[in-house]
Specification:
The structure is a single chain. This protein is about 60% helix and about 10% strand. By secondary structure, the protein is an alpha+beta fold. The chain has a 4-stranded mixed β-sheet. The longest helix is centred in the last third of the chain and has 16 residues. The radius of gyration is 22 Å and the shape is elongated. The termini are far apart.
Length: about 210
């Protein structure tokens, strides 16, 4: 006999199938959603299946979450793991999803995904993880991208200020390579000015 399944679908009409028994045991949030009398985004089918429409997260994130519910392991890109960190918080997950996601991000974040992951960490109030990732993967190639991300964060945010100081010090220590990089030309003028001022105060600019 086939187990009745709950179907989570994105706006692109892609679907992830998870057994109802698994949801009952592993996701109290989704189970309560299925039992709620006011479930506007839930449809019950005649064959016992449910369709739950979830538009907030990408299909890749929902697919990884469905697999996690069945297998208790996370396999995905670091950017997707950051989505799942947000999902874990929203769904009040108590199965260890957030911990697995953080561990995966530490292992797999690369220079091209660092800026996105730092932005997500700060949005989710996981500054310690953002600092750790920055120290692990900051390099000349992504330094300007991370600075640009931090520019969009509230300037009074102490956590963002600390990470910004790490990145600015790195940029100053690798000034020649950073200034000659392609990404530097894409920086906002205000950021370029701050970097040049820092270099000047360190005596690294020639007049």
């Amino acid at each position: 006999m086939l187990t009745p399944a709950a179907e989570k679908s994105t706006s692109e009409k892609s679907s992830v199938f998870v057994s109802l028994d698994t949801i009952k045991v592993r996701s109290k949030y989704l189970w309560r959603l299925l039992q709620s009398p006011c479930r506007g985004n839930v449809v019950r089918h005649e064959d016992g299946r449910f369709t739950v429409e979830i538009h907030k997260y990408s299909f890749e994130a929902l697919e990884a979450y469905g697999r996690y519910l069945h297998e208790d392991h996370i396999f995905c890109r670091p950017e997707v793991a950051m989505e799942l960190l947000e999902l874990a918080e929203e769904y009040v997950d108590s199965t260890g999803l957030a911990e697995q996601c953080a561990q995966l991000v530490r292992r797999t974040v690369c220079q091209s995904s660092l800026a996105t992951c730092v932005a997500s960490c700060l949005f989710l109030r996981r500054a310690a993880l953002a600092v750790e990732l920055t120290k692990l993967r900051l390099c000349v190639e992504n330094c300007c991208d991370v600075l640009q991300v931090l520019e969009s964060i509230d300037c009074m945010d102490l956590q963002a200020q600390y990470i910004r100081s790490i990145v600015m010090n790195f940029a100053a220590g690798n000034a020649t390579a950073v200034v000659k990089s392609e990404r530097f030309n894409l920086l906002a003028d205000a950021l370029k000015s701050r970097l040049f001022i820092k270099l000047a105060t360190m005596g690294l600019l020639k007049t």
